[in-house]
Design goal:
single chain, mainly beta, two-stranded antiparallel ribbon
C-alpha cells in the first residue's frame, strides 16, 4: 500500500487487512471479524458497521 502525504501511523491508527487482502489505515479499536464501511474510491475507512 502506498502511504500518501498526510497519512500517518500513530497510536490511534493501525494497518487493517481486509478479507480481500486490501490494506488500509483504520482506528486501533478495530478487532478481527468486525464489519467495516470502506470508501472504495480511495480505500479509506469510514466507520464500523454493527450487525
Amino acid at each position: 500500500m502506498k502511504i500518501r502525504k498526510g497519512y500517518t501511523i500513530n497510536n490511534n491508527n493501525k494497518i487493517v487487512v481486509l478479507e480481500t487482502g486490501t490494506r488500509l489505515l483504520g482506528p486501533s479499536f478495530i478487532k478481527t471479524g468486525e464489519f467495516l464501511k470502506i470508501n472504495t474510491k480511495n480505500r479509506s475507512y469510514i466507520e464500523r458497521v454493527r450487525k
